[in-house]
């Protein structure tokens, strides 16, 4: 009954939903592959969300994505592809949804990609991952491009 009283006073539970869409294009701009999956919010991602409610937030905001060839750990990619940490192309908010978009140009992040992450520093292999995703292998050739769109919804 105490729980019911708490819910009545504070409303419904806050829930965060994350989704990621990966789109692979050939050198002519034709879409070769597309994946839409749910992903994971790391402990740092949850801390960032709470930190932004402070008058002076201390956790840096996400600004980079990176791809790899293994399975993400709790704070970084299992095996990142050297040179693949890339600045976001855009970051927007509409209502309770934040959308992060990153474009990986030809020659960047090439290989058999199986993981991706959203980070708050530019330095590769730094354990500051906020969101992570793992998926079946997607082969990005040297002339292919990849666009990753991450949506972060607070319900």
Largest sheet: 5 strands, antiparallel
Percent helix among the residues? Answer: 10-25%
Structural class of the secondary elements?
mainly beta
The total strand number stands at 10
Distance between the termini: 24 Å
Share of residues in strands: over 45%
Taken in chain order, the helices and strands follow as HEEEHEEEEEEE
* Bulk shape: globular
Gyration radius over CA: 17 Å
The number of helices is 2
Low-confidence stretches: 1-9
Widest β-sheet, arrangement of strands: 2-1-10-7-6
Overall pLDDT confidence: 89
Key structural traits:
155 residues; mainly beta; five-stranded antiparallel beta sheet; 2 helices; 10 strands; 12% helix; disordered N terminus
Short synopsis of the structure:
By secondary structure, the chain is mostly beta strands. The protein contains two helices and ten strands.
Q: How would you explain this protein's 3D organization?
A:
The protein has helices at 2-10, 43-51; strands at residues 16-25, 31-38, 40-41, 64-68, 86-87, 90-94, 97-104, 111-119, 129-140, 145-154. It is mainly beta. The strands form 2 sheets. It has a 5-stranded antiparallel beta sheet, with no helix packed on it. Strands 3-9-8-4-5 form a 5-stranded antiparallel beta sheet. A hairpin with a 2-residue loop joins strand 6 (90-94) and strand 7 (97-104). The longest helix has 9 residues, at 2-10.
